[in-house]
Amino acid sequence: MTDQPQAQADVDIFQQTMEKNSQRASIFEIVLESTLFQVIINILTLYALFGDDIRVAAFRLSADIVFDALNITCLIMFSSEIILSVIVKEGYFLSFFFWLDTISTISLLLDISLFNQAVGLSGAGGQAKNTAGLARAGRASRVGTKAGRVVRLVRLIRLVKVYKSANKDDEDKVQKLLSQRRQKRKANTVEPQIQDRPDQNNPGQSEEGETKESKVSKMLSDSTTKKVIIVVLALLFLIPLFSVDYFVSPPTSMLMQSQQFVKLAESEASTYEDVKNAYDQIIIDHSGIDNSIVLFTSPLYNYKDFPIYEHEDYPNLRTDEQDVGAYTLDYEVLIKTTNLPEAAIAGFDKENPDVVGILSTRQAAVMTSILSIIRTIFVSIVLTFGAMMFSKDSNDLALRPLERMIDKINKIANDPQIVTEMAVIQNENSNETVKIENTIVKIGTLLALGFGDAGTEIIRINMKKQGDVDPMLPGIKKVAIYGFCDIRNFTDATEVLQEDVMVFVNNIGDIVHTMVDRYLGAANKNIGDAFLLVWKTRPETYSFEEDNVIWHDKQYIQTLSDCALISFMKIQCKINREPKILAYRQDKRLQARMDNYKVKIGFGLHMGWGIEGAIGSNYKIDASYLSPNVNMASRLEAATKQYGVPILISEQLYEHFSPEFQEYIRHIDRVCVKGSNIPVSLYTIDMNVDNLPPSNDPQVKYKDLTKEELKMLLRQKKLEIKEQVESGEFKGAEHLLENKDLRFLLTGFKKDFMEVFGKAFQAYLDGDWKTARAMFQEALKIKPNDGPTEAVLHSMEETNYQKPGDWKGYRELTEK
Length: 816
Prior knowledge:
- This protein is α+β, with helices and mostly antiparallel strands and 816 residues long.
- Helix content is 54%, strand content 12%.
C-alpha cells in the first residue's frame, strides 16, 4: 500500500516564478505589490482622471497651486511605478504596456498650470490689461484646454490597472477562502476519499478541486486586457464627438458691436440720434435671444441717454459664461465732433474710456455640462459593459453563486425559518455551483421543517459559533399560546387504512399546519394522531415578575389570541369542506368499521410560560416545549369528549381575547383538571359543521399555477394577515363576519341560547342548583343535545341536583 504524502504546500509554477523574481528584486517587488502602494496608486489614478475637471468646476484660481502639487505628486508616483515595474517585471520594459503607462504619465504635464504657462498653452492668472491681452490669453487657454482633454483621455488606460487590481482582490479572497478550507481538510483527513481525488481527465485540476492557471487561462487574461484597451481606444475617438463645438456655434463676440458704436460716435457724419439709436439698437438686438446681452456700458454713462444696461442675471454669471467685447472711445476725437451734446461729453469717464458689451453664454455652458454628463455616462456604460462582459463567465459560474451561497447561509443563520421562502434554481443544465446552492436551500429547508420554529435558536447559535455542533443548549423561558389537536378514532383508522394512513394523516396535517401558519402560529410536534401547535409571543411584549407575566402590549396579545382560536375554527371548517377530507366519508373500509364516519378533531387551547429547547441527546433531539401549560392544552383537548364540543379554551387564554371576540365564546364549566389542584374555567365556541358546502377542489381551482406559484399564493395570504396584525388593523370579531369559512361555522349562532345558558351557568356557580337545573333544561329546548349543558346536568345529577356541602364553585374532572 502506498503511503499518503505528507501535508505540504501545493506546487504552483507561477508562485515559483514569482519567488525567483523576488529573490532577484525582493525589496522592489515588496514595495510594488504592497497593498498600501497599490491603494495609493489607484487613488491617484482616479484623481488623474477627474482632478482637473474638479479643479475647474469646484475651485477658483487660488487653489491651482494645490492641484499643481497633487499633479506633481501623481507624476512622481506613476514614474516610480514605471521604474519599479521595469526592475521587477520581466519583459515589461519597452513593452506595449510600458508605452501606455509612459504616455498616460506624461499627459499629466498638461494638468500643471505652471507648465502650461511656460509653454504658452494658457495665459497667466488674473484679468488681462487690455482687449488684445484678453484675446491672446483666451486663445491660448482654449488651445491648452482642448489639447489637455484629448491627451488626458489616454489616462483612461490606467482604468485597466484599477479593474485588474479589483479583480485580483476578489481572486485573492476566494483563494484565501479555498486555502483555509484546504488546510482544514488536510488537517482532518487521514486518507482521501475516492470522490475527492483529482479528475484524471482534467489534469489542470488540483486534488483540492482548485484550477491552476493554465496556458488557456493566461491567454484569456491577455485577451481580456486587450479588449479593455480596445474599448478605451474607442473612447479616445468617440468622446470628442460629445463636445459642444460639434453642435453649437460659438456666440458672436461683442467686440464688433463695441467697435461699431465707437466708430459711429467718433464720426463727424453721425448725428446725435444716430449714436443714441445705435446704442439702444445694440441692446434691443441682443435681448431675448439664446446668447442675450447682460451688460452694455460706455464712458458716456453719466448722460441720461446712455445709461448702463445691466440684466438682472449678470451678477449670477461666471466669467467663463460671459463673452466680453471692449473697444476704447477716444475722448480727444470725440470732443472734436459736434454730434453729441456738451453735457454728454462733459460726463465722459476718462478713467474707463472703453465701450464694453457682455453676452451671456450660459446656455452653451449648460449644454457643455449636459454633454459632459452624457459623456461620463457613456464612458461608464461602455466600461461597465466591458467589465461585465470580460468577467461574466467567472461571475456566473463561480463568484456570484458563491456570494449567493454566503448570503443564503447568513440569512439561514439569522433566521432558519426564512429558508422555507427560498426557491431552488430551476435549470436542467445547471452546473456544480448551482447544484451546491440548491443543496444548501434543500438542506436548510429540511432542517427548518425538522426543527420547526422551536429549533430556531438551536440552528442559529450553532451556525454562528465556531467549533463543533452542540445542540444541547440551555432552554429559554417563553410565553406562548399552546394548541393541541387530536384526530378522533385514529387507532381504528390506522388499522383499516394500513399504508394509506400516512396519506390520511398528512392530508389532515396539511390543513392544520397551513391554517396555523397563516394565522401566525407554528407547528411544533406531530405525534401520529395529534399535533402540538404554538403561537409564540414577541419577547418585547412581556416581562416576568417572579412567576407573573406583565404584558406591555395588550392589543398585540389580544390579536394573537384571536388568531389562535380563528386558526382552529378554520381547521374545523376545512376538514368538513375540503374534498380530499370529505372523500374519507365515502371510504368503504372506514364506513365498514365505523358507521357514518367523518374526520373529527378535538382542540385544546391554553396560554402560559414554557421552556423552549432541545429534548434528547447527541444521538437524537426534538426541539419542543416543556411546561405544565403544554400539558394543560393536552388535557383540555382530552376533556372535549366529556363536553361533546370540538374545542375547549382555558380562562388564561380567554382573558386575552378581544372584548368583541369574547361575545361569541361561552363559559361552560369551572373545574380542576386531573393532575392539578388549581381550578380553571373552561370556555368553548359553538360551531355549526352540519351540511357545510364543499370547497372547490384545489387541484381544479389552482390547476394553472405551478407548485412555486401556489406556495407564493399561500405565503401572500399569510403576509396579509401579518401586516394587518402588525399595523393594528386586524380585528378578530370583524374577521369572523368577513371570512366565508367562519361565517359558515357561525350559521345558526343563537344569542338567546347564550343568554339563557349564561344565567343558568351563573346560578350553577353560585350554588343555586334548583334555578340552574330549570334554566339548563330551558336552554336544551332552544338548543337540543347541547354537550356542555348535558355535561353539567349530568354532574349535578350525581348529587341528585343538590349542591355539595363543600361546594366552592368548581368541581373535579374524573377523567384526564
